């Protein structure tokens, strides 16, 4: 274990208060623009898809419209296929992969399903290449109606009418070297706990729902992604990030209990992707392509076996 005093904010054993959160927030530097990097890519899709503003984040650093892309000609008799990206703003291929999928492949599902894509759930964090929102809250532990994270609450409200109609939900993430160098030490310091170093897996993996296991579905995604990038092996303990590997490149979480984005609906098929962008064996475009391959494989499998 490493004492939380190794993080530059807070005191060992003491959870952060408002002062420490303010110190942390003051350290966050805007490195890219949501308005320039994401909104134009969404605007370019408006000729073929409907775009809905489902929330507006009003922070001291700016106002951020939250946008979702919908199939045009939405039909209530068709299943709903859901993609979410950018829950953690620093996980770039989640955002870019979601947009690339809509641009290049969403038309393949016209007349077969309704598509709903929320490509950048945390735009403040996207700009600062950060995991948390400005209140030092991780949106991906807070997807519930009374969420303290405005990003999470907005998505919960958007999806509330559809929770029982969504067939598949794929949530696009990354596991990065900065998880170990910054974000895990930060959460330990924030919560007044000791930091326990971990191991970053080299490769792509998935997180299944331990209370709604769909092994064949996960296998189909892994098979498709393996054609694009390498799959993360288990470590010497048979684990990936501390969880037992249940199949090639697959671990499990109780997604609803943990308040994860993947648990926000009652979809039959659920998965969370984890791309490793810091691998010397993967390029940024390869990471985006891996996300797209995962989305396509997830949707194709779910539509082939909607009642399994």
From TrEMBL:
Coiled coil spans: none
Keyword Metal-binding: yes
Keyword set includes Ribonucleoprotein: no
Peptidase M14 domain ranges (all copies): 30-308
Cofactor requirements of the protein: Zn(2+)
Highest taxon above the source species: Bacteria
Pfam families in the cross-refs: AstE_AspA_cat (PF24827)
GO biological process per UniProt: proteolysis
GO molecular function terms listed in the Swiss-Prot or TrEMBL record: hydrolase activity, acting on ester bonds; metallocarboxypeptidase activity; zinc ion binding
Sorted UniProt keywords: Hydrolase, Metal-binding, Zinc
Family to which this protein belongs: Belongs to the peptidase M14 family.
Name of the protein this chain belongs to: Peptidase
């Amino acid at each position: 274990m490493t004492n939380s005093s190794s993080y530059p904010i807070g005191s060992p054993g003491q959870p952060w208060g408002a002062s420490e959160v303010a110190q942390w927030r003051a350290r966050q530097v805007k490195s890219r623009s949501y308005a320039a990097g994401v909104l134009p890519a969404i605007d370019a899709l408006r000729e073929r898809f409907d775009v809905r503003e489902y929330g507006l984040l009003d922070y001291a650093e700016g106002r951020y419209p939250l946008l979702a892309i919908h199939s045009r000609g939405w039909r209530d008799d068709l299943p709903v296929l859901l993609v979410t990206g950018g829950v953690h703003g620093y996980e770039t291929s989640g955002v870019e992969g979601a947009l690339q999928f809509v641009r290049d492949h969403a038309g393949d599902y016209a007349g077969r399903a309704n598509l709903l894509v929320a490509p950048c759930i945390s735009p403040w964090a996207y700009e600062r290449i950060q995991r948390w929102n400005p209140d030092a809250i991780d949106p991906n532990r807070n997807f519930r109606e009374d969420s303290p994270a405005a990003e999470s609450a907005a998505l919960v409200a958007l999806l509330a009418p559809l929770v029982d109609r969504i067939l598949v939900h794929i949530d696009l993430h990354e596991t990065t070297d900065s998880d170990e160098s910054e974000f895990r030490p930060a959460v330990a310091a924030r919560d007044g706990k000791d930091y326990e170093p971990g191991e970053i897996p080299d490769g792509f993996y998935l997180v299944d729902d331990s209370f709604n296991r769909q092994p064949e579905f996960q296998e189909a995604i892994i098979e498709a992604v393996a054609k694009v990038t390498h799959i993360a092996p288990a470590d010497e303990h048979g684990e990936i990030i501390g969880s037992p590997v249940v199949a090639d490149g697959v671990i499990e979480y109780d997604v609803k209990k943990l308040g994860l984005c993947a648990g926000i609906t009652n979809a039959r098929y659920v998965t969370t992707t984890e791309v490793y962008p810091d691998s010397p064996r993967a390029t940024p475009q390869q990471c985006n392509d891996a996300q797209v391959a995962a989305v396509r494989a997830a949707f194709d499998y779910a539509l082939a076996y909607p009642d399994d």
